[in-house]
Design goal:
Elements: H1 10-14, E1 21-22, E2 27-30, E3 33-36, H2 42-48, H3 52-60, H4 69-79, H5 102-122, H6 127-130, H7 143-153, H8 156-163, H9 168-183, H10 207-216, H11 235-240, H12 249-258, H13 269-275, H14 279-295, E4 304-308, E5 313-318, E6 321-331, E7 344-349, E8 353-354, H15 357-364, H16 368-374, E9 377-380, E10 383-386, E11 397-401, E12 409-410, E13 424-426, E14 430-432, H17 435-445, H18 449-458, E15 462-470, E16 472-475, E17 479-482, E18 485-488, H19 495-503
Parallel strand pairs: 4-16, 6-13, 12-14
Antiparallel strand pairs: 1-2, 2-3, 4-5, 5-6, 6-14, 7-11, 7-15, 8-10, 9-10, 11-12, 17-18
Helix pairs in contact: 2-5, 4-8, 7-8, 9-14, 14-19, 17-18
Length: 522
């Protein structure tokens, strides 16, 4: 069984776990473990090594030991950096036992170094074993060869630090994790109970607790400024007030924006749930999302489309720059949009829709022939097919993607969905806001604008091949960087909890409200 590289409980994770190195000469001590390179013979080392990757490492070095004091100090210092990645450094020294031989300690240090390197370079868990399917391009790294080079150059700590993602978003999530992990060590705060909706001007006995929650989560200053006018209550009195004042509305709206709730300033149960997400829970969410980013290819194509299905937002990257960002509608719970890496290879103007058998059986056929005639649904080759047109479930354009799961981006006649903060309403595909405008943008960039416009004007289903395939990454990210600050989203698919379990993290399940939308579109 694979050794856990994160703590069993969130409390243990938040406790950190750096180690110190003491000792002198050719030996050192790490957490009570001595390194004695000069006492390790090749024969002893061969007898001590059981792990295949460790064996490969030493075979390439002629079975010579490596962990003198300087290198061991460097490695232990690297383990001290682990909390920044929501990992526990002490977990990487578990296999070093009191009473073990110098050769066993030498081999264990190498195993721990390789495990830590792999955790930083490609993640702790294999997403393909947790989520099916998972085809988003992943990072690849030969950690054995990298460790060998780092040992020779004497820069083990710097090499390990280079394996984690180096982008701005990963650093921001990491910094946020450290803040919340530190805050979680303080006294626990009682959640604000649900109840009646609170509008500006209302009085409610929960308001002092709501103000305390806003303050604890950084949405209002920790020390309120003195009242500017004599007739305003003093800060201590304001904190105890049961009235929802206009001054609190911007803070409430910021909470709502950060959690994908309609930013209307009205305090309902969804807003209270977001406020009740305390520091420990936010640290857990960030730990899960840091792991997701460690899976990803460090050098994604400069021209690509990224769809965050948790936040229901699409970003179009062109030549390394974020050119466009717009809302999408993603799959609803039980019809989740899978995490795929799949390129767009053509635009299809005026597409018809071959309706999946499950949707046909459950949602179309029971409505009868009159409904199907109204929706222009006919039978072709034994399958239900909706004819092209602006009221078709696919709208006026389909972004055809190369995958075996029948997942793609497309237009929709249900435009009102894009105005909702909760946009998990499809059967798995992603519906794009102003899809025709987005298709024209891509066609223009690919030199196919005239061809697409002609195809669209024809009123007939017409494919417009793209000269270059545009990679699409469908990803699920519940914490991310937006306008310079970290925002959080809900966990509509329960995939945060699923990954947290795979990582060995504790914590309660995140709230999920499953509401199926009866909509015939894919």
């Amino acid at each position: 069984m694979r050794r856990a590289l994160v703590c069993v409980s969130l409390a243990a994770l938040l406790a950190g776990g750096g180690c110190n190195v003491v000792g002198s000469g050719g030996g050192g001590e790490q957490g009570g473990v001595r390194t004695e390179v000069k006492n390790v013979t090749p024969a002893d080392l061969q007898a001590a090594v059981t792990d295949p990757q460790v064996k490969k490492f030493y075979e390439a070095r002629g079975w010579q030991p490596v962990w003198d004091k300087a290198r061991a100090d460097d490695l232990t210092a690297a383990f001290g950096d682990a909390e920044r990645h929501a990992l526990q450094g002490a977990a990487f020294l578990r296999d070093i036992r009191q009473g073990s031989s110098p050769a066993e300690r030498e081999a264990a240090l190498t195993k721990n170094a390789l495990d830590y390197a792999k955790a930083l370079a490609t993640g702790i868990v294999d997403p393909r074993k947790v989520f099916d399917p998972y085809t988003v391009p992943m990072n690849r790294a030969d950690v054995g060869a990298g460790l060998a080079q780092a040992v020779d150059k004497g820069n083990v700590r710097a090499w390990l630090a280079s394996l984690a993602p180096q982008d701005e978003e990963y650093r921001a999530l990491s910094d946020a994790f450290l803040r919340y992990a530190q805050a979680a060590k303080g006294p626990a705060r009682q959640p604000v109970p649900p109840g009646e909706t609170i509008h500006v001007g209302d009085s409610d006995k929960r308001m002092p607790a709501i103000v305390a929650a806003l303050r604890a989560n950084g949405y209002v200053p920790a020390a309120p400024a003195p009242a500017a006018q004599a007739n305003k209550p003093a800060p201590a009195e304001a904190a105890k007030s049961t009235r929802y004042s206009q001054a609190l509305v911007p803070a409430v709206k910021r909470v709502q924006q950060d959690y994908g709730i309609k930013p209307d300033g009205v305090i309902g149960d969804s807003t209270l749930e977001a406020l009740n997400t305390g520091a420990a829970e936010r640290a857990r969410i960030l730990a899960v999302n840091l792991e997701r980013r460690r899976w990803l290819d460090r050098r994604p194509p400069g021209t690509r489309i990224d769809v965050n299905t948790a936040a229901t937002v699409l970003t179009y990257w062109r030549d390394g720059q974020a050119k466009d960002r717009r809302p999408v509608v993603a799959g609803q719970p039980d019809w989740e949009t899978p995490e795929l890496g799949s390129p767009i290879f053509r635009l299809v103007a005026n597409p018809d829709w071959t309706i999946p058998d499950s949707i046909a059986k459950e949602e179309i056929l029971p409505k009868g022939a009159a409904y199907m005639a109204k929706e222009h649904i006919t039978t072709k080759n034994g399958r239900l097919v909706q004819e092209p047109g602006p009221t078709s479930a696919l709208g006026l354009v389909k972004f055809d993607m190369d995958n075996p799961h029948a997942i793609y981006l497309h237009d929709t006649p249900a435009k009102a969905m894009f105005a909702s903060p909760e946009r998990h309403s499809s059967h798995g595909c992603s519906r794009v806001y102003d899809a025709v405008g987005f298709a024209r943008m891509i066609a223009q960039d690919e030199g196919q604008l005239d061809a697409f416009n002609e195809a669209l004007a024809s009123g007939k289903e017409t494919g417009v091949p793209l000269p270059s395939r545009i990679p699409v990454r469908l990803m699920y990210q519940t914490a991310y960087l937006e306008d310079g600050h970290v925002v959080f989203r809900g966990d509509p698919y329960g995939w945060d909890d699923k990954l947290a379990q795979a990582l060995g993290l504790g914590g309660a399940l995140r709230h999920r409200e499953i509401k199926h939308v009866r909509d015939i579109g894919p």
